[in-house]
Design a protein that fits this description.
By secondary structure, this protein is mainly alpha-helical. The chain has helices spanning 29-33, 39-48, 59-84, 92-101, 103-108, and strands spanning 7-11, 15-19. It has a domain at 27-109: Histone, subunit A (Orthogonal Bundle). The protein is 40% helix and 7% strand. Strands 1-2 form a two-stranded antiparallel sheet. Helix 2 packs across helix 3 and helix 3 (59-84) packs across helix 4 (92-101). Its main location: nucleus.
């Protein structure tokens, strides 16, 4: 600690004593934001990725919150799929099924290949709209 932060107090019977302020416990940015995902690690990845020349201190917190929300949503849906299969462990297949059932996640993960996820489930043929056959009606011929 520097001497600028400390102060000298004159105690009777003891003499002059230098008193330092109590250090507060360090608090992570994830803890301040109430997140479980590491904000510092995301900040480091954003800096290394060279996505921008400069980064605001709010950007990694926001990106971390979005990532945490997406993971919570995905884990909730895949946990429901595992529960429906009467399993207590989420497998890549459950994640694949969870993504395929949710429209927004399906659009977000359209180019993603999940290792061990199996074949993507196709829609039942009743839900797939097929083009109807066009029938041409010829005018009736009148015979006299």
């Amino acid at each position: 600690m520097s001497a600028a932060r400390s102060k000298v107090v004159d105690y009777p019977g003891i003499g002059k004593v230098r008193v330092y302020p109590i250090k507060s416990k360090p608090f992570s940015r994830s803890g301040k934001a109430g997140l479980n995902f590491p904000v510092g690690r995301v900040h480091r990845a954003l800096k290394r990725g060279k996505y921008a020349e400069r980064l605001s201190s709010v950007v990694p917190v926001y990106v971390t919150a979005v990532l945490e929300y997406l993971m919570a949503e995905l884990l909730e849906l895949s946990g429901d799929k595992a529960h429906a299969d009467r399993k207590s462990r989420i497998t890549p297949r459950h994640i694949q099924l969870a993504i395929s059932t949710d429209d927004e996640l399906r659009e977000l993960c359209s180019g993603v290949v999940i290792s061990g996820g199996g074949k993507k489930p196709s829609e039942p043929p009743t839900l797939v709209s097929t083009p109807e056959k066009i029938t041409y009606v010829t005018p009736a011929k009148f015979y006299f």
